[in-house]
Amino acid sequence: MKVHWAVEVAGTGLHVPRGVVTNADFAQRLDTSNEWILQRTGIRERRIADPDESTLTMAAAASREALQAAALTPQDLDLIICATITPDYQLPSTACLLQAELGCGWIPAFDLSAACSGFVWAMIAGAQYVHAGLARTVLVVGSETLTRITDMEDRGTAVLFGDGAGAAILRASTDARREILAVQQGADGARGMLIAIPGGGARHPASTRTVAERMHYMKMQGREVYKFAVTQMHQVIHSTAQEAGISLDDVKLIIPHQSNLRIIESACAKAGFPLDRVVINIDRFGNTSSASVGIGFHEARRDGRIAAGDLVMLVAFGAGLTWGSMLLRI
After folding, report:
1. Angle of helix 222-244 relative to helix 261-271, nearest 10 degrees?
2. Spatial separation of the C-alpha atoms in residues 198 and 193, rounded to whole Å
3. Torsion, CA 277, CA 283, CA 287, CA 292, rounded to 10
4. Active site includes 34?
5. Which of 15, 131, 234, 257 is catalytic?
6. Residue 238 a catalytic site member
7. Which residue, 46, 77, 48, is CA-closest to 64?
8. What confidence score (pLDDT) does residue 229 get?
9. 315 backbone dihedrals φ, ψ, rounded to 5°
10. Which of 311, 290, 310, 329 is nearest to 87 (CA)?
11. Alpha-carbon gap, residue 126 to 129, rounded angstroms
12. Pairing of strands 311-318, 322-329
């Protein structure tokens, strides 16, 4: 959808745990090897939260860095949106706890559950609040402690996921050249169970059976998810640019969800977009779900890969099945 939202990113931040788990660590206890993991995923290592860390503590650390980058205080915020599938509690929302942790006023705060698409969806939601005049300054954060819902005995999923958080501050543009040009969102619920945590919800409440059957861990049909992701990613890249009325050649950088290096490479090849203009950090962080686009966005800004006037596209896809994109001029 083509839009003209006078909304800018005032600051970004990230937090990743200190603990590092390498492919060699997995090879010591699972039937796998560094070469097997690297060839199939592009991952060399991932971060794992310490026992005293959680989705909330990582969200708070990333948010404070974003506020500092924007030269703002928690009292300047009007809204908090936290994208996560690993909240600290079922109730209350992590966003409400984050409001208290940061020391904000009694501003609205809510969680958004769209899995790996979560940060992009939260950015779209936050930008609409600003565009509609319902908020002046919005904190968007994606934070995940995925290692706590990952079956570490399952070779197919254990090696994929890591923990971390990425945050961004949205506000009305202070420069007319900074705007959001196009957004996309979609979902295919018929394929929702391709990635799922079967236990713990209202359908299968926690019980000795759900624990014994390891139903509280993420289950994924990897081959079907791979095919969906490659197809959807390259289609979304093309259609987002087309709807905005720009050429992909004009896009300075694409920041995709870091699901699998082969997915990113295949999708960009189909779209005809060069990999040297794509943010790739999956080798260092693994798949951090809703945190991954936010982490990549912050690294791109921090490392000087984007500058004023550049067109940047955020692209994500994940459980639900969901997908989303945002094209913005920095």
Report:
1. 40
2. 9
3. -40
4. no
5. 257
6. no
7. 77
8. 86
9. -140, 135
10. 290
11. 5
12. antiparallel
The CATH superfamily of 2-172 is Thiolase/Chalcone synthase (3.40.47.10)
* pLDDT, tens only, 119-164: 999 999 999 999 999 999 999 999 999 999 999 999 889 999 999 9
User: What angle is formed at CA 10 by the lines to CA 5 and CA 16, rounded to 5 degrees?
Assistant: 120
Q: What is the pTM of this model?
A: 0.96
Mean pLDDT of the chain: 96
> Is the preceding omega at residue 92 within 30 degrees of 0, hence cis?
yes
Q: What is the DSSP code (8-state) at residue 159?
A: T
Q: CA-CA distances (angstroms) from residue 223 to 40, 60, 162, 195?
A: 12, 35, 20, 11
| Strand residues in 90-221 grouped as ranges (E) | 109-112, 137-145, 163-172, 179-187, 195-196, 219-220
Q: Which 8-state DSSP code applies to residue 75?
A: G
Q: Does the fold of domain 179-329 match that of domain 2-172?
A: yes
Taking only the tens place, the pLDDT of each residue in 50-61 is 999 999 999 999
User: Comparing C-alpha atoms, which of 164, 166, 162, 159 is closest to residue 287?
Assistant: 162
179-329 placed in CATH 3.40.47.10: yes
Q: What is the dihedral of CA 224, 225, 226, 229, to 10 degrees?
A: 130
Measure the CA–CA gap between 321 and 186, rounded to whole angstroms: 8
15 is catalytic: no
Catalytic residue selected from 104, 234, 268, 287? 287
Q: Which of 15, 116, 234, 298 is catalytic?
A: 116
Quote the CA–CA distance of 119 and 117 in Å, as a whole number.
6
d(CA 270, CA 254): 14
For residue 115, give the nearest of 22, 38, 12, 228 by alpha carbon: 228
Indicate the SS3 state at residue 288: coil
Domain boundaries, the chain: 2-172, 179-329
